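Work package 3, deliverable 3.1, input record:
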Amino acid sequence: MKSILSVFKKEVVDNIRDRQTMFYALLFGPLLLPIMVAGSLVAGFKQMSIDFDEITELPVINVEEAPNLVSFLRQNNIDAVAAPDNFRDRLRDGDINVALEISSDYGAKLETGQPAPLILYANDADKESSKAARKIASLLNVHERTLDSLRMQARGLDPTVFDSIALEQVDVSTEGAGAQILSSMLPFLLIMSMVMGGFYLAIDTTAGERERHSLEPLLSLPINRSSVVLGKYLATLAFVTLSGSLTAIALILLFHYFPSEALSSVIRMDAKTIGKAFLLALPLTILITSLLIAVSAFTRSTKEAQTYLGILMVIPMAPFFLLQFMTIKSANLIMAMPMMSQYKLLEKVAKGESPETLHILLSVSGTLIFAVLLLMLAFWLYRQDRILA
Amino acid sequence: MIVVDSLSKAFKRKGRRVRGESRHVQAIEKVSFTAADGKITGLLGSNGAGKSTTLRILATLMKADSGNASIDGYDIGADALQARQSIGFMPHNAGIYPRLTARENVRYYANICGVPPQQAEKRIAQLVEMLDMAGFIDRRAEGFSQGQKTKVGLARALVHSPQTLILDEPTNGLDVMATRGLREIIRQVADDGHCVLFSSHIMQEVEALCDQISIISNGRIAISGSHDSILKNTKQTNLEDAFVAAVNPQSISTHTSEVPQ
């Protein structure tokens, strides 16, 4: 026990002095990853969704021709302003997102009951511009329907004659469409930062030790090989857990100081939710550590270890991508699968639902069983002659 | 005291096999010798002769396929932990941790060997003086010269005051002065009553240092004994000729028969 502690302490001190390990444990997972992933997802989500409450300016050509239209737009939080002469160029340059041209005969055609021409200018190469155009077009559609029904009533027709289909769309999911990707972001970030936190330490303490030729004298000391493995295991576990908890804290702070309204309408990102998610993901620290230790015990050099573990990075990422285009039900078998079960559990938590107790138990026990099996594999690998070669 | 009794070890052959080649390479076969306390015993052999494999088995890093060996009375198979407590082992690259200071490197081994902290510090101070490490004991090992690394490795092997010291090609990569210094240290350790076993492929070194020599070739011990007895038994006048004679008896006999007496 004492010697396990000696190995643990030495590996921690040794690796605190390693810039690469510290960068990945303290900065990459907890800081860079959330900013990169969460930032781009939130930004992308914002770009996709249209905010009808936001007051925006709309450059309009011949704004004086259609006072009714202008007042309708104003009711819908859009201020019509006179468009500059070079509005096409400015659209192309991205200075303005959209422009509306009211033709000079707009008023006259409207009065005589003919279609009144409007031209909407947008730059489809620009996401912001096409989004603004969609917003104006949908508002204009609403306005058109009002005018249509007025015209029909003036001719003594029932406006509903033209409504052949009354389509009503009901979304029964507790969240919107973007919620899937946003809710699996939480497990993705936590799991990835756990893996990255222990990645270099596991390689350094096993494959690196062999490459430095320091493993031979270490194993010739009066200490069981399993104690050596356990010491290294605990050191890696400490870094995996540290990286994971720092990420949870970073996410809590991130969403506390930069609350995203677009986001909070679909998923919850408060301290309680993230804390719950972290606890549910916690058994993974043991599994991830076992995996890292076993793989780096198997490989012969740090380079080989990096290659193998790089390929294995697919494991924590696979559920993220699978869940994007596949609907995987929370069947009992799935919930006993490590990684996948945590994704499902954390998604539920992120959506504000509470996972079933049975699913939590299955997830924890499935993860622990795999962790123990991989640790046994590491013990076994350390007993082989090839660990020295 | 090391007693080695017909150790054998075979490895799986790596890479593609030539037809008819066996799956295994016999690394050492029926290796037997003894290394006494207070004496320096040299294991002399060319590269790939089986020196490192023998030392690794003695350091309980690997298990032999057959045969047995004991270190200070502890069987390396059955009482591996006690045997390890009794040996200090330094492999041919000192294998020290670059991000730790020399002192931390040595202290780590003292901790694992269960040396009480106070006693460990005392012992480290002793070793610093004996190995002349005062100049770099508190510096990080990154960038140490090979000589400094070897000293740290040696201090680490000696920190738990083992009765037996096993060194695998300790002078590899050392310059002349460092080699001389190391020889003196090894001599001193033996004179203090310890058993020192070291491997080398350098004749002069073995000749200059060893009380007992075992020549190993193709995994077998060709001849064992003191320097003089080896010369006498091979009827040669220097160790190099004796080595060739022991390793390949035919080459010498044809060679001598051509020379008219």
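Chain A touches chain B through 26 residues (CB under 8 Å).
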